[in-house]
Amino acid sequence: MRGPEIPGFRWVRPLGQGGFADVFLYHQELPSRDVAIKVVRAQGDERGTRELHREADAMTLLAGHPSVVELHGVGTTSDGRAYLVMEYCPVADLLTQVRARPMALDRALETMIKISGGVEMFHRLGYVHRDIKPSNIMLDAYGKPVLADFGVASKVGKLEVGAFDGFSVLWAPPEQQDVNSPASPLQDVWALASTTWTFITGRSPFEDPIGDNSAASIANRVQRGRMRGLGRADAPAELERVLRAAMAVDPSERTPSAMEFGQGLQRVQKEMGLPRTDMEIKERRPKATAAPVGADQKTRLRGAPVIDPDKTRLRPQSYSFE
């Protein structure tokens, strides 16, 4: 499978494929670097184009966050297919790695605390990822974990597109199986926990090593909250408690935010005597205010103006999450 000709880029090899798009490794001529380019597979695929544009918007909202894959640009091929130019991550399939050998606890905790910071920022901007899972967490050129694949991201409160459409049942919460379930940050909290569980054990918390793992059987176990124990002698009891709290079947009983989930993992680090991993979460800056103008101070301002980079950053104008 060969990628399309794109001016300024040289095709190298395929990297993977999804439901509506293929991903290829290209070498960009200027600046000289390897990049991953995601291209809508079929000509005239309007839904695929919308999802790709939505993904570009989502990645732009999080531009510069150290735990999110970087977007370099967008474009359209000569035959009318939309594409994204993204940071190339040499390790793009952590799921395959942990299936063969689960992560060490210290690495799993560090990875998921960092990812939780990126997810918390996305939630504060009013959006939900909706497809957090091991295969959507990659390692960049420096071995740093980054979250990818924002193609089914949605505004908080927006209805899902359909049951079993746009998510992976192995890592998604029970309410995401409902066609009438609005997108909620609590769905991502569940997925963060189920992904952490997978990194530690090599399997989803709802997979049965010897039983039926069809989508219907797994969905049933998810609905009932039936999961096995972690089964790791080196894992403190607090770790399993943190994970189970984030996967409460009733969303109202679930850990309330990605930040609080990350803080739970930080407590586990402390209990284990590990260095604390920070979450990159930017607080919103207060607006500068001017002092009342009186007869003796017509030109005096109280407080220096603060420039918020989010207000000055250029963003694509042709894309919408609506």
TrEMBL record:
Protein name as it appears in the record: non-specific serine/threonine protein kinase
Any GO MF annotation of the entry: ATP binding
Record EC number: 2.7.11.1
Alphabetized UniProt keyword annotations: ATP-binding, Kinase, Nucleotide-binding, Serine/threonine-protein kinase, Transferase
PANTHER family recorded: MITOGEN-ACTIVATED PROTEIN KINASE KINASE KINASE 20-RELATED, SERINE_THREONINE-PROTEIN KINASE NEKL-3
One matching Pfam family: Pkinase
Binding-site residues, ATP: 38
